[in-house]
Design a protein that fits this description.
2 domains, Alpha-Beta Plaits, 270 residues, elongated, four-stranded antiparallel β-sheet, alpha+beta
Length: 270
């Protein structure tokens, strides 16, 4: 019973680490997809006295993706009833040029300020509307959510690593007499600690299998897909091959590293 309890404690601690890692991965994917969505919807409006070539805009920032010239025909059509054709033609000539700039990625506030200031250095450009107030609010919220997620994952990992180390240390104390006897007969350290490493690897594999199973089920549930559809994004909650391999490697690596540290510490005490 005590042996099963030790196994369960170690598996649960490893599972907690894997759970935190995968939640962090999912949040990163969701945030990246949401940033891409915001980037596709975000644009800057530029007003110029004369025509400006697309390459001119792109030379101010590598983040400039496409430049679209906005047509003034809709505005002029509304004025046709009260203005003569001759004045309409003059109006077309005298009206400023309007451009919409789309960016490759969701910009930071500093990137927007940098691009805006560079655009205004062009003598043909009279005004740049960057919608900075709304953008800054959204960007700060995204940044805050990222930092909270990272802190949450870090705290869970630190606490669970300490718990795993404690469980392995308890195992070492329970088997110290057997290890000392094996040492008297000249058994190398790796042989004396073989059971510890076997325990660590087996429990790590079980923990990774539980994590893979849980996230595989979650990824197929309608509830998870509905939560993502609310914010208009579609991501892979769990990539079976990629994420499963990462979780398995991380679990086994952490277990072996902690077991090795305990074995080395035990050797120094002798």
């Amino acid at each position: 019973m005590k042996s099963l309890k030790n196994h369960f404690s170690l598996i649960l601690a490893l599972f907690s680490i894997l759970f935190a890692i995968q939640i962090f991965v999912i949040n990163n994917r969701a945030l990246k997809a949401y940033e891409e969505k915001l980037s596709s919807n975000y644009s800057m409006i530029v007003v110029a006295n004369t025509s400006v070539a697309d390459d001119t805009f792109k030379k101010y920032s590598a983040n400039v993706d496409t430049v679209e010239e906005l047509s003034a025909d809709e505005i002029i059509e509304k004025l046709q009833e009260n203005i003569s054709k001759k004045n309409i033609e003059l109006l077309k000539i005298s009206m400023p040029k309007f451009y919409r700039i789309h960016l490759k990625s969701f910009p930071t506030p500093s990137e927007i300020k940098y691009l805006t200031s560079n655009l205004l250095k062009n003598s043909s450009i009279t005004k740049v509307e960057d919608f900075s107030n709304n953008h800054d609010t959204v960007y700060k919220l995204l940044l805050l959510f990222k930092e909270i997620t990272q802190l949450f994952a870090l705290v869970i990992m630190v606490v669970t690593v300490l718990l795993i180390a404690k469980e392995m240390r308890i195992w070492q104390f329970k088997h110290s007499e057997r290890m000392n006897i094996m040492g008297l007969f000249g058994a190398p350290v790796w042989l004396r600690s073989a059971v510890l490493f076997r325990l660590a690897i087996v429990d790590a594999l079980f923990a990774s299998l539980f994590a893979i199973g849980l996230f595989s089920i979650i990824s197929q549930t309608l509830w998870a897909k509905q939560q993502l559809s609310v914010i208009g994004i579609d991501i892979d909650i769990f990539k079976f091959v990629h994420d499963g391999t990462v979780l398995g490697v991380v679990s086994v690596t952490i277990s072996i590293m902690l077991a090795s540290m305990i074995v080395i510490g035990y050797k120094e005490e002798v």
